[in-house]
Structure formats: C-alpha cells, structure tokens
Amino acid sequence: MLFTFVCTMALLRYNWERKDWPHFKYSLKGMDKLLLEVNSLMARYEGVVKALPNGMKAEAIIDVMVQEAIKTSEIEGEYYSRKDVLSSIKKNMGFQLKAFSVQDKGADSVSKLMLAVRESYAKPLSKKMLCAWHNTLFENDKNLLVGKWRTHKEPMQVVSGATGKQKVHFEAPPSERMHEEMRAFVQWFNDTAPNGRQAMVHAPLRSALAHLYFLSIHPFEDGNGRIGRALAEKALSQGNGSPVMMSLSVAIEKKKKDYYAHLQKSQHKNEVTIWVHYFVKTVLEALKLAEQQIEFTLSKARFFEQWEHELNKRQLKVIRRMLDEGMEGFKGGMNAKKYIAIAKISKATATRDLQDLAAKKIFIAEGGGRSTSYQLNLQ
Fold first, then answer.
1. What is the DSSP letter of 364?
2. Which of 39, 144, 229, 247 could form a disulfide with 67, with the two C-beta atoms 3.0–4.6 Å apart?
C-alpha cells in the first residue's frame, strides 16, 4: 500500500493535478514592509502623474504603453521597432499623424492590445473580453485558432531545447478541461476584485495569483504569456482605482531567467509563497523604473523649454528622433552618417550642426575621428 501511495504522489507533477487545485496557499509573513513600500510608491507616483500638465501626462502614458508593448513581446522572443509601436499607439489613441506607416503588423496588434487592456481595466473580466484580446493580438495570423480556447488533443507543453533534446518544463490541463477551468478562473478574478464577494486587500498579491493561475491553465494556443501579463496589470489597475502607470514587462524582461525559473517552480504545487514574494518584488521594481520614466519625460519637457527656439529645425528633428528611442537611448549614439540620413542634408551641414550641438553641450562626444559618436545630454 505504501508503494502504491508513493507512486501515485510521484505522478502528480503539476499544480492542476493536485486535489487542492486551484486553492493556492501562501504566507505573507515578513512581507508587511514590502507591501507598504509598494503601496507608498504607487500612491506617490500616481500623485506625480496626476499633477502633470495634460500634454505631458499623455506623453507619459504613451511612453509606458510603448515600453509594455515592446517588452512583453521581447519576453516571448518577438522584437518590434519602437517607431512602429509608438506610431501605432498614437494613431489608435486618435493623434493625427502626418505619415502613419507601421512596417510590422505584429507591432500594431500588440499596441491595440495595450490600449484595450487600459480602456477596460475597471470592467469585470469575461470570456468575451479575453477572447477579444486574443483576437486583437493575432488578428493577422491565419494558422492559429484565434479568439477561442484551445481544442487540440495534443498536450499543451512548455518546452525548451533543440528537437530531440527538448525538456518539458510544464504541461497544462488538457484542452477538454478549458471551458470549466476558464469559467472558474473568470469567476475567481471577479470575486477577488475590490468590490467582489471575496475581495483581496493587496492588489499586488491578487496580481501575482492571477498571473500564475492563468498561465497554469494556458487556455490559448499562443499568446498566453502576453495576456497573462495584461491580466496582472488589470488586477493592479483595479486595486489602484485607475490604470497603473508602469510596465511589469520591463521589470520582468530585465531578469527574464528569474521570471521563468520562479514560474516553472511554482507550477508544480499550490503552495506559492516563493512566487508571491518574487512577484511583489517585481511590482516594486516596475514602480521604481516607472519613476525613472517620469523623470525622463520631465527632462524632455525641460529640454525643449530651454532649447526649442535656440536650435534649427534639422537639429530639433534629429533630437526628437533620438528621444523616440526612450530611456535606453539611440543605439550607438548619434554620428555624422546617421545625422545626414535623418536630416537629409549634406555632410558639411551635418558637421556644422553637430559641432554647434557639442559646443552647447547638448551632445557629448565619445571617441574621435571618423568613429566619433554623440550622446544626448538632457541635463
């Protein structure tokens, strides 16, 4: 009998196979200070955002959505140009752009998802909403079951490694269980909302559980990670009472290996204290990065207040293009060749413009001779 019991327990590899699924257990012992820091920083940050002039506030919102769209895609190994994402978000927010052209349709799709999540943050979750998000994300994919729970009989597995040497990290519940699993998930999400029957006090905790719960079901053929992170931000926004001005994906992508390691470890049992601690720390990191983003936005505004009437149109065009790359900056800095291409001018004119920007200490030179490059100084 003992042998049979041990063998049966050994077969329970994943959280959803256990009798206590989906009743997650966790301890918040020792987390009071961390949760207080998250709440304090979120309140302070929201206060700063609300105090911004309307134009600057819109720019800050756009910057955050651009970051989230780019980084949530990069976590899944998809890379979109910032220019494409920025143009798409601005267009879909109703900004009149002189020349709107997105080269990659995937960038347009993920941008639309960011807007859909933001605009519907306060609404109860539903199957219709989740399927609409999935349809938005994969509207151009003809080879995928779009806007519906998965139905294939093959196991839904998270694997890594070359063909023939693949390692299975996780296997989700079979497709036949999707309707019931997702009905229960949607009910749980709405019940634990601020005004729900089982409202959770700590939004970061609910966000952590929502993300883990959803990814453990893995209801779609593809896109579960991106939609799971969108759900995590929806939970934070509902707890905040307004759309959160931060990007979880920026913080996650910085330490992507840690994210996957904690996720995979936590999908083998329903005691998830380690996951909760990791995720709340990630929320705190995202808030700190968001503060840096706001400072960047303010620095841009101060810069143009000081220099907009002191620089020529070519110089302003190049600087705006550099700033479009966000806090990470222009890869490799600016040089004469790039300046000529952006401003569409002669080498001699570019040289004069660059020398003038360096003399004003707006550009800081690095290297020398033909390899000279310039970094933008916003201070």
1. E
2. 247
Of 171, 123, 174, 130, nearest in space to 148 by CA: 130
Q: Hey, CA dihedral for 145, 150, 151, 157, is it positive or negative?
A: positive
CB 268 within 8 A of CB 14: yes
Q: Say yes or no to pLDDT of 1 above 80.
A: no
pTM: 0.86
Q: Cα–Cα distance between 251 and 54 in angstroms, integer?
A: 27
Domains of the chain (ranges, CATH numbers): 2-296 (1.10.3290.10), 326-376 (1.10.10)
Greater pLDDT, 280 or 142 = 280
Question: Residues 6 or more apart from 263 whose CB is under 8 A from it?
Answer: 212, 215, 275
Closest CA to 234 of 244, 249, 247: 244
For residue 370, the model assigns a pLDDT of 76
The dihedral sign for the CA sequence 21, 123, 205, 246: positive
Alpha-carbon distance of 192 to 174, in angstroms, equals: 26
- The two beta strands, 167-171 and 157-160, are antiparallel
- In whole angstroms, what is the distance from residue 243 CA to residue 46 CA? 10
Question: Judging by beta carbons within 10 Å of its beta carbon (0-12, 13-18, 19+), is residue 314 exposed, middle or buried?
Answer: middle
168: nearest Cα among 48, 14, 296: 14
